[in-house]
Amino acid sequence: MRSEEEMYRLLLETAKADDRILAVYMNGSRTNPKVSKDIFQDYDIVYVVGETKTFIQDRDWIHRFGKILYMQYPDEHPDYESDKENHYGWLMQFEDGVRIDLTVQTIRFAREHIHEDRLCRILLDKENILPSVPESTDEDYYVKKPTKPQFQACANEFWWCSNNIAKGLWREEMPYVQDMANFVVRKQLEKMLSWKVGIETDFQVSVGKSAKYLYRWLEPEEYQGYLDTYFGGNIGEAWRAVFHMCSLFERTAEHVGSRLGYTYNAAEGKAARGFLEYVWKLPKDGLGNMEMIGCQGHDDIRRKREYDYEK
User: Fold this and answer.
1) Section 188-197 average pLDDT
2) Which of 32, 220, 252, 268 is the most exposed place for a label (fewest CB within 10 A)?
């Protein structure tokens, strides 16, 4: 694999030798001093140019960066809008393991958008066309202190959508369960755990994309408990993981609410978990009348109701 020094030299020499390229800036993890360097870090490079058309038309010029193993033209995707006249990208994975995410941007576009990401570093500016940028920082990605409505909405979303996991597991519709667990319910757990980290760090850190850095601040046992909420395609395993998820969310929400002075709706969580446990035990011939027992905190309205589970 080529070294970082070799890659910077190649990227900058290419820019210096091409009169169409007026400036170069970089963003992404390589501009973040808090991220440990490793062999999988991309080179997120922007070439600021007078026009994009000639770069797009010439399909061969990118091969100067190395032998491409495979790549993607994100602005050519039929399902997404693009603005090729102002910016265009190439995502390239090279045979030696290096990856470059390269974009060309017009001067106007770069000037208007360069400050949108504070993880930014100017590497070259031939004619001083770019505005000055502050020292690179990941402050924009710090965990933000939630408002009371945000905290309560997170808890409500977690418990309400656990209902969908329950019926999906009872129906044994694992693709639906995975989507609901990972893209809806888990996102609320990530928020709550991130807020806990924020409280402990005075909201001065980032937990990274998909909360991948939670392990840095959670206790090992707690972080392992979070990992235990993931599951594969086995229904029994999934039920166990979902109950782990509920317990972890409940503990974390109570802690965060207490520290921030926000009221956590424990009755709602207890009722939702009661529903999960009831569905977990519900036999497969349980179509028709289903006795609703998950109303802890609302015992006065416990009664039988009709539920139509269409399979």
Assistant:
1) 98
2) 220
d(CA 224, CA 229): 9
Instruction: Write the CB contacts of 172 (distance below 8 Å, at least 6 apart in sequence).
Output: 235
Specify whether the CB–CB gap between 118 and 136 falls below 8 A.
yes
CATH number at residue 267: 1.20.120.330
Residues 37, 101: one domain? yes
**What pTM does this model have?**
0.83
Please check whether residue 114 is in contact with residue 87, taking contact to mean a CB–CB distance below 8 angstroms.
Answer: no
Q: 280: closest CA among 268, 293, 269, 289?
A: 293
* Mean pLDDT computed over 6-25: 97
| Position 143, amino acid | V
Do residues 156 and 149 lie in contact, with contact meaning Cβ atoms separated by under 8 Å?
Answer: no
At 120, list the tokens. 């930014």
DSSP 134: P
